[in-house]
Amino acid sequence: xxxxxWTRPLATTGLGVLLAIAGAPEAALAGIQLQPHRxxxxxxxxxxxxxxxxxxxxxxxxYEFTGNACEGYSVAFRFVTQVADESGNTRVTDLxxxxxxxxxxxxxxxxxxxFINQQLGEExxxxxxxxxxxxxxxxxxxxxxxxxxxxxxxxPTEHLITLLGRAQEGETIFVADLFxxxxxxxKVYETTAVIGPRREGAGDVGRDAxxxxxxxxxxAHWPVxxxxxxxxxxxxxxxxxxxxxxxxxxxxxxxRRLVLDYGDFELRGNLVEMTKMTASECKQ
Length: 284
Description:
- The chain contains three helices and 14 strands.
- The chain is mostly beta strands.
- The protein has one domain.
- It has a 14-stranded antiparallel beta sheet, sandwiched between helices.
- The protein is globular.
- The two termini are 25 Å apart.
């Protein structure tokens, strides 16, 4: 998972946004074959992190990706964190999302629920349709609303495939506007991805589970850092991203060695389980 629905998990705690990913219909044209899979990541503070007001953060992220380039792709994503403060209080945030992206990026359907200490805190549901020169967003929850965006905006699936294509071409910077159904279902993020040099083979296991890394395979991969910016904040000069995600991105769409930077603290995501799923045949 590289993902833009790694975005949003900590949003209701005031800690930032995370990222969800899917595959893309252009995969066959670009020579990119995305691997349907289920990945599990254990989360904790990085060694250098100093989280003001927090004594501990731990959690787990589960990402399941299925589908193909002809029928579209589905993503089921769950992100659970437990935060302990200096007073001994704990707060458990549980983000659950599901999405479906049609072939050729024709539409993007999304549903998400966020529970705080097992109580429903937020719920978002909607659909975005591709139009000539933009997208039309139809939000059902938290409140009904329609938004028309007349500019180029990528869905998560398109973003991933384009990023992989740029990486394969040796490019180092990729800038794009991204819509993934975040927050109230109307949010668009300006993103900048920095792509490192291509690496061959599985790479160092590091803190990830050896068996999980072995399951990915010895594919080419790239170190990537994606910065997310709020388009409503800042009119000029150098802006500070509201969130950054760093990871190793493999050419089959799988990600590992995550670092989630929320500004005032960082989380590390260690890949602990990786299960490949059978890819359905694309009859087209």
